[in-house]
Amino acid sequence: MRKSKSTRVSDTITFIVLCALVVLFMVPILFIIMNSFKGKLYISDNPFALPTAETFARFVNYTNGIEKTNFFSAFGWSLFITVFSVIAIILFTSMTAYYITRVKSKLTTAIYYMFAFSMIVPFQMVMFTMSKLANSLHLNNPWGMVLLYLGFGAGLSVFMFSGFVKSIPLEIEEAAMIDGCTPLQTFFGVVMPILKPTAITVAILNAMWIWNDYLLPYLVIGVSTKYKTIPVVVQYLVGSYGAKDMGAMMALLVLAIIPIVIFYLACQKYIIEGVVAGAVKG
């Protein structure tokens, strides 16, 4: 079918706007990559200029940043905290969402609204109390961070899983129970595979948040322990009186971006499907 003239004009305008947005979002990333290959003395002089024969520093910024911050140790702790936090969030929030959706009572309804309410509470309201409690309970370590991220990530995750579970026909679970499945077997063998799109969406959203988070690790773990994450060690490059090694910072930012971009590209096809499925009846 041929499109009308007004439709073609609308599509063209939409395409132009989307292209402009792509450029707008890509410019900061290209800015960081470009300056990571320039000498640190030249970044401040002309940050938007492409590297030239004079300003090109090869991989000096990368080696300096890795040596100054012990980057690979920070990368390992960031990976550990992110992976186990995401696994914990997916496992426990999906089970919670399944229970409060299938078991109808005043208690489960109250629990659901508590999770929903937690999404609108600003982190700044609880950060001082949380950091004090974390120190008292000796949670200033990677496993403690996993527990804290589980708490802060539970609200949105339970909300999304609950919306998807409501769309699953009860007949599927009843058939599994007739075949002799226990509730746990029904959940992991029948329900969880159906939840895959939402689970991947939850994993992507939480992985990007946890990997790039600076404030929570800084408040709980701090900069004086061996458990520093990547955002914390990048900030470590800011010296006294505001002195910064901009070249090393740009290089470490590039290294920090690469893993999460790869993860996002590998799972991006599930994002819209999971978000829509989790919000249809939520």
**What is the CATH level 1 assignment?**
Mainly Alpha
The name of the CATH superfamily reads: MetI-like
The total tally of domains equals 1
**Overall geometric form:** globular
Q: How do the SSEs run, as a string of H and E?
A: HHHHHHHHHHHHHH
Residue-averaged pLDDT? 84
Distance between the termini: 37 Å
Radius of gyration: 23 Å
Count of DSSP helices? 14
The CATH architecture designation is Orthogonal Bundle
Instruction: Return residue spans where pLDDT drops below 50 for at least 5 consecutive residues.
Output: 278-282
Structural class: mainly alpha
Could you explain the architecture of this structure?
The protein is mainly α. The protein has a single domain (60-279), classed as MetI-like (MetI-like fold, Orthogonal Bundle), CATH 1.10.3720.10. It contains 14 helices and no strands. The chain has helices at residues 5-35, 40-45, 60-69, 71-102, 106-118, 123-136, 142-165, 170-178, 183-194, 196-212, 215-220, 230-236, 246-267, 271-279. The model is unreliable at 278-282 (pLDDT under 50).
Could you list some keywords that capture this structure?
282 residues; mainly alpha; MetI-like fold; 14 helices; 0% strand; disordered C terminus
